[in-house]
Amino acid sequence: MKPVFDPTQYKITSKANWNTVAHEYHYNWADQQVGPFKSTAEVVRLAKIKPDDKVLDVACGTGVVSKEISQFLGPQGLLVGIDLSRTALSIAKKSISFQNSNFVEMDAENIGFSFKFDKATCQYGLMFFPDSVKVLESIRNILNHNGMLAVAVHGLAEDVPYFSTIMKPILEHIPDIRPEGTPTVHRFGNPDSLRAELASGGFSDITVTKYDFVYKPGTFDEYWTDYMRSTANSIRSKIEGHGDAVMEKIKNDARNNASRYEKDDSIVFPWTVLVATGINQ
């Protein structure tokens, strides 16, 4: 029997994990705009930022979307980023020179501001919120009438093999690795599911655009090391706790899964991203 999902403990664990991996996530992935982070420019483009807009970047992380947004804002514009990770927020503050910007440690399920925003963005955060509808409703509450939300999420497991190549054998060999009901990276990878979620949060005029990117993690061993150190960091100790034999089985199965994406000993992963926009009417 799997352990019961505890949303509060999940947030505590997520916060601790992001404080640990934020630097590597930023400097090796997000800031380099490799693979899925080619979507950053698309999220901001679809948000149609105007110079005097007041913009909220939800789950802003290390600030890559915020930095892109700041390029479109003028002296009358405002940029606010919120996130649970202090380490990620510190990186965001250092990387953005826009004067009218502020970064705040805040839970996206309980957004609280005394003024309204014109636009809101959220890249690779929506699928990880325990109560995503509550987050969407919180965003709507601080958006002006006809304000716009733009969100990016990863595609389905078969369309984002970077995650599933290793996670599938982890789940096969350690089925109780995470509590039943834990949010997953592919949660809104189906366009219809993403569209329905924004509608449940009260948004209208919803559009979903699909992008197909490519990510090259190097050799299998390089990919394995990066994945275990970053993506699987929060569960790595649990995996290692099952012993070397189980770890070796997971690695061998993952190597076999990765072989279909190898070209000249280097892996080339396809990576589907969905970007949705919705209006607060």
UniProtKB/TrEMBL annotation:
<keyword id="KW-0489">Methyltransferase</keyword>
<dbReference type="InterPro" id="IPR029063">
    <property type="entry name" value="SAM-dependent_MTases_sf"/>
</dbReference>
<feature type="domain" description="Methyltransferase">
    <location>
        <begin position="50"/>
        <end position="161"/>
    </location>
</feature>
<dbReference type="GO" id="GO:0032259">
    <property type="term" value="P:methylation"/>
</dbReference>
<dbReference type="Pfam" id="PF13847">
    <property type="entry name" value="Methyltransf_31"/>
</dbReference>
<keyword id="KW-0808">Transferase</keyword>
<dbReference type="InterPro" id="IPR025714">
    <property type="entry name" value="Methyltranfer_dom"/>
</dbReference>
<dbReference type="GO" id="GO:0008168">
    <property type="term" value="F:methyltransferase activity"/>
</dbReference>
<protein>
    <submittedName>
        <fullName>Putative methyltransferase type 11</fullName>
    </submittedName>
</protein>
